[in-house]
């Protein structure tokens, strides 16, 4: 299995941080950029961000842990996000989420043992008129039913 | 002659196969030696008909939908021969669902190419800014105030007053911030307009900058909206190239720059002070007010922070005059509201109309009831913090005050429809759970109250001391409502209490019987 992400590399991390450090309020921008490159925010990067922005490590750690998006470890090879908010609940999302959990053998918020699929809840993709909806590695899918969900799960497991 | 086709690039259309339809159309055209040009527009907002394909004809655009990739060949044949087709919907503008709307803010959405400034201008774009550049700050403020426009994010604060406060503040730097952290389930109007007509948002923000003397703006878009981020970035670059952003905009003495910032999955960042914290690179912790953002906002500077739809309403007002906008609506709710019909609804989508239409008209007539065909039992209006309305209250007109009078809110204009299979105790529990997950943690009623709320509703669902626990939930809701710092903790009681009040049967044994037994 090859990953779409680069392995953690301090020099590369420093380069990414330096690229954005001059922006007003750069912390989130940098954390996003690090995660985009490495697939997660490696722990050694936290003090580097702090030093570049003249913040304490605690402050950067606090920002990193506040937001649901940032990962402290790499996700599975594919990330399947199921919308769990009200509009999708109204359209049968609960049963589909249970079905996905059963098919993958993991609860929402976890990665399969073979590290192929991370299954996550997401609170609203804004596709509420074509509910229930999901996102597989950034690709949006609406009007989910059992067959469409099964196909998505299968695709994620590949 | 080249045939011009229009297919949305809107995420909602892409989610149901619009990209595959485009590929299939291109392939089928090539096979037929047909020259076609496909313009990727936004969505018209008739989502049950997406992917919708339109073709330019002498009679105007003609629509087909919902189209799948397999229909591409037969569609092209029908278009070239002007023959009937089972998916043909007729002239787009004559589709009753669209015709019945009053599209002021969304007039161009689904019509124009969202990547093209020229197309935007060809459809009346930038006329508002051009007029604003001939006016004084006070004259613009007078127009915005007279239009009656109120913040479309949910709070409904008069936009003119907010802008005036910032205009009157003196500072070395002022900011314009667009709140595009549209986290409410059942709402997608911000996403649609950013993807389908991003220049109208840019124009509205630019007018705000010119009015209050701000030279820098930020659009804070949630990370769940990658298509909107892409569309806004492309539009900002295009507007810059055309001289509508940067130094000396439109040849005037004003400068205005815009930048997109992406959120990171925190619902609370839709709250304006939390959003400002996040923009500054911190945890999205709510600030106590005062000071108001208009006095001390982003980086402590005077800041206009408005929702996407508020900014998007501005160009029309400046172009057509305050009266043209204020003539629509009822009471203190002036103009139009882009209402979003979502969830278990037959005809889901965006319906922009003047305030005053009733909830029943929206759900039953326009929405067509549930898509499962079962009776509609409840609708949640205004996102996760909005109240659940039973059919008995379907006569409520869509208006800020009318909804408040019935212990609800219109919020950002989203309506989520549920059929009779819904368990309202479960929905009430979810409202508390969502608050617990998303609470920023600063104030106790929200941080602790939401967790206790989940536990107590679970006890009720298990049948444990139902009456006592119901009383406890009501008490807890009052604490949260009056003791929380922001709308997250303060409004979570709306869905909980409305579920309790209107759907008591779902919460364990009926109180009367239980009391008698005790």
Describe the structure.
The complex is a heterodimer of chains A (158) and B (518). Chain A has helices spanning 10-20, 27-38, 45-53, 57-66, 86-90, 93-104, 146-157, and strands at residues 78-83, 110-111, 117-122, 134-136, 139-141. Chain A is an alpha+beta fold. Chain A has a five-stranded mixed β-sheet with strand order 2-3-1-4-5. Chain B is an alpha/beta fold and 518 residues long. Chain B is built from 22 helices and 16 strands. Chain B has a five-stranded mixed β-sheet. A five-stranded mixed β-sheet of chain B has the order 13-12-16-14-15. The termini of chain B are far apart. The chains are: A alpha+beta (158), B alpha/beta (518). At the A-B interface, helix 2, helix 4 and helix 5 of A face helix 1, strand 12, strand 16 and helix 17 of B.
General form of chain B = globular
Radius of gyration of chain A: 18 Å
SS content category of chain A: alpha+beta
Kindly, what is the distance between the CA atoms of the first and last residues of chain A, rounded to a whole number of angstroms? 10 Å
Strand residues, percent of chain B: 15-25%
Give the helices and strands of chain A as they follow along the chain: HHHHEHHEEEEH
Mean pLDDT of chain A, to the nearest integer, reads 96
Helix-strand makeup class of chain B: alpha/beta
Question: Uncertain segments of chain A of ≥5 residues (pLDDT<50)?
Answer: none
Helix content of chain A: 40-55%
Distance between the termini of chain B: 83 Å
Describe, in short, the structure shown.
The complex is a heterodimer of chains A (158) and B (518). Chain A is α+β, with helices and mostly antiparallel strands and 158 residues long.
Can you give keywords for this protein?
heterodimer; A: 158 residues; alpha+beta; 5-stranded mixed β-sheet; 7 helices; B: 518 residues; alpha/beta; disordered C terminus
């Amino acid at each position: 299995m090859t990953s779409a992400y680069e392995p953690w590399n301090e020099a590369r991390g420093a380069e990414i941080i330096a690229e954005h450090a001059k922006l007003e309020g750069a912390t989130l921008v940098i954390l996003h950029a690090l995660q985009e490159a490495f697939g997660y925010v490696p722990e050694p990067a936290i003090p580097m961000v702090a030093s570049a922005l003249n913040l304490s490590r605690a402050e950067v750690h606090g920002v990193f842990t506040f937001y649901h998006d940032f990962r402290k470890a790499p996700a599975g090879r594919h990330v399947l996000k199921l919308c769990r908010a009200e509009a999708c609940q109204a359209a049968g999302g609960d049963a589909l989420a249970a079905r996905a959990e059963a098919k993958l053998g993991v609860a929402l918020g976890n990665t399969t043992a073979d590290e192929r699929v991370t299954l996550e809840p997401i609170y609203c993709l804004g596709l509420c008129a074509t509910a229930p909806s999901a996102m597989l590695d950034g690709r949006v899918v609406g009007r989910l039913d059992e067959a469409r969900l099964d196909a998505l799960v299968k695709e994620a497991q590949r | 002659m080249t045939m011009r086709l229009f297919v949305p690039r809107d995420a909602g259309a892409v989610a149901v196969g619009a990209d595959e339809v485009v590929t299939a159309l291109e392939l089928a055209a090539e096979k037929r030696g047909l020259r076609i040009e496909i313009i990727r527009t936004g969505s018209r907002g008739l989502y049950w008909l997406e992917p919708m394909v339109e073709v330019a004809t002498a009679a105007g655009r003609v629509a087909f939908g919902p189209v799948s990739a397999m229909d591409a060949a037969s569609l092209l044949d029908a278009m070239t021969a002007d023959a009937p087709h089972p998916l043909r919907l007729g002239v787009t503008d004559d589709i009753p669902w669209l015709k019945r709307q009053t599209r002021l803010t969304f007039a161009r959405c689904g019509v124009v190419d969202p990547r093209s400034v020229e197309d935007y201008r060809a459809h009346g774009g930038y006329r508002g800014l051009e007029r604003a550049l001939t006016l004084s700050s006070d004259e613009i403020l007078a127009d915005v105030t007279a239009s009656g426009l109120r913040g479309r994010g949910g709070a409904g604060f008069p936009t003119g007053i907010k802008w005036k406060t910032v205009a009157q503040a003196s500072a070395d730097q002022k900011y314009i911030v667009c709140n595009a952290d549209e986290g409410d389930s059942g709402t997608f109007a911000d996403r649609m307009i950013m993807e389908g007509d991003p220049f109208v948002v840019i124009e509205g923000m630019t007018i705000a900058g010119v009015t209050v003397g701000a030279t820098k703006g930020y659009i804070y878009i949630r990370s769940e909206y990658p298509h909107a981020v892409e569309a806004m970035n492309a539009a900002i670059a295009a507007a810059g190239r055309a001289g509508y952003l940067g130094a000396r905009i439109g040849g005037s003495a004003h400068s205005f720059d815009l930048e997109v910032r992406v959120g990171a999955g925190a619902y609370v960042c839709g709250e304006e002070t939390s959003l400002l914290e996040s923009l500054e690179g911190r945890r999205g912790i709510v600030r106590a007010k005062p000071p108001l953002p208009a006095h001390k906002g982003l980086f402590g500077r005077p800041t206009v922070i408005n929702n996407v739809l508020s900014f998007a309403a501005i160009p029309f007002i400046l172009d057509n005059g305050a009266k043209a906008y204020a003539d629509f609506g009822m009471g203190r709710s002036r103009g139009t509201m882009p209402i979003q019909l979502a969830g278990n609804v037959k005809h889901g989508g965006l319906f922009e109309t003047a305030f005053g239409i009733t909830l029943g008209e929206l759900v039953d007539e326009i929405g067509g009831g549930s898509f499962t065909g079962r009776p509609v039992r409840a609708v949640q209006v205004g996102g996760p913090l909005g109240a659940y309305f039973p059919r008995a209250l379907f006569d409520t007109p869509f208006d800020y005050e009318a909804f408040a009078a019935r212990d609800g809110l219109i919020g950002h204009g989203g309506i989520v429809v549920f059929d009779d299979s819904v368990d309202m105790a479960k929905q009430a529990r979810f409202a508390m759970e969502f608050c617990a997950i998303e609470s920023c943690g600063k104030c106790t009623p929200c941080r602790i109250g939401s967790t206790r709320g989940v536990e107590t509703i679970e006890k009720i669902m298990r049948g444990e001391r139902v009456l006592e626990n119901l009383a406890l939930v009501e008490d807890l809701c009052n604490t949260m409502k009056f003791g929380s710092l922001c709308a997250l903790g303060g409004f979570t009681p709306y869905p909980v209490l409305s579920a309790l009040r209107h759907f008591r049967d779902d919460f364990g044994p009926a109180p009367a019987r239980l009391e008698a037994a005790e």
